[in-house]
Every structure is written in C-alpha cells, then in structure tokens.
Specification:
It is built from eight helices and seven strands; from the N terminus they run H-H-H-E-H-E-H-E-H-E-H-E-H-E-E. Strands 3-2-1-4-5-7-6 form a seven-stranded mixed β-sheet, sandwiched between helices. The termini are far apart.
Length: 212
C-alpha cells in the first residue's frame, strides 16, 4: 500500500469518526505547537476508540498510565458519567501542569485526578479491583509491569488498552530496547490465560485485553 493511499485512507477514517470538541482540538493544536515530541498525543482515532470501549462496558472508574498533555484523559472523561473518576499518572511536572491547565477549562476536568511521580508507585496506592478500565501509554520499558499492576486494579470483565504495541512495526524484529520491551509485553499478554486479547492496527497499535 502506497504512502499516499495510506494517508488518504487515514484521512477518510478520521472524516467518518466522531469529531473532537473545541477544547480537545485546542489541546491537540497546543501540543503540536509546544511539545518536543507532539506525536506522543493519542489523537482523535485512539480517543474515540477509548470512548467506544467506555460506552460499551459502561465504565465509571478508569486508571491511565501516562497523562502527557491530558488529551486522552479528557477524551475518556467526556464519556464517563458525572460521578465517574479518572486517575491518571504522570512523571513529568511540566506535562502535569499543562494537563491540569486544560482540565481546569473543561466541563469534565473535575472527574480527573493527576498522580504525579513514578507511575508504578502511584499505581500501588490505588485499590485493587476497583477500576473498570485501564489505558497504558507511557514509557515502554515498564509496559509489562504496568500491565501486570493494571490487571490487578481492574475488575472481572474490565478492559486494559495498551497504545504503541506495534511501535512502527519494529516489534516484528525488535532491535532496540523499547521494541524489545513492547514485544515482550505483547508475547506475555498473548500467553496470559487471564485475558482475552486482540491487537488492532489502529494508529501505532492498540492492544485490547478483557479480563476474564
């Protein structure tokens, strides 16, 4: 498939996916204009995928590993009920501050709590079995540990979604540390009898895991 055809198909998919609200669009533009690695933002396709899963399982409590500028947390906050909660973990102070500034502008921002510091430590403070869904999109070296902890945090029938599980295709023949970590995580999940899993070629690869 040519690059032009791939780009046209991607554009067509976005045009036939629910649009972002004004604040989400503003946050995406801000991220691309001000961040050193703006491609870390999840984007509309992933955001609406997350919203779809939330609506399907009627999720009310969500844990997120990797806030970045807050785009995915706001996407999810839009879809959960008024009394719902999102607990998002972020290591970098500047990202937490950016996210908080946009959460403060949003009608959904009060549903979101930011846990600053190393995510594994933050995850240890959260109640086991108390969450409906987890979204993992942080440093790749700790992906397997994040998955294992989030599997403990979500209830039976709950869902874990991991982003970047294709890593631009490098997981097929991994050579660098991040690719090797993601491949190791994917292989572990594939053999994990506690979940039903499916890897979708959406954006950079979304792994969906349903806890049995």
């Amino acid at each position: 498939m040519t690059d032009l055809l791939t780009e046209n198909i991607h554009r067509y998919c976005k045009e036939h996916t629910a649009s972002d609200n004004r604040l989400l669009s503003e946050l995406e533009q801000y991220t691309w204009a001000n961040e050193d690695v703006p491609q870390m933002i999840s984007g509309q396709m992933v955001g609406k995928f997350l919203q779809s899963i939330i609506r399907m399982i009627v999720a009310q409590k969500i844990v997120e590993v990797g806030t970045f500028t807050g785009y995915s947390a706001l996407q999810m906050a839009e879809a959960i009920p008024l009394h719902g909660e999102i607990h998002t973990c972020e290591l970098m102070k500047k990202h937490a501050e950016t996210a908080r500034s946009f959460f403060d502008k949003s009608d959904y921002g009060k549903k979101i709590t930011i846990h600053e510091g190393p995510a594994l430590k933050s995850l240890e403070t959260l109640q086991v079995g108390n969450f409906d869904m987890a979204f993992i999109d942080a440093d790749k070296s700790n992906y397997l540990d994040y998955y294992k902890r989030c599997l403990m945090l979500i209830r039976e029938g709950g869902v874990i979604i991991l982003d970047n599980m294709l890593w631009s295709g490098s997981v097929v023949d991994p050579n660098d540390d991040d690719s090797k970590s993601l491949r190791k995580t994917g292989d572990y999940i594939q053999e994990d009898t506690r979940v039903f899993n499916m890897l979708f070629p959406i954006r950079d690869g979304l792994m969906l895991c349903i806890k049995k």
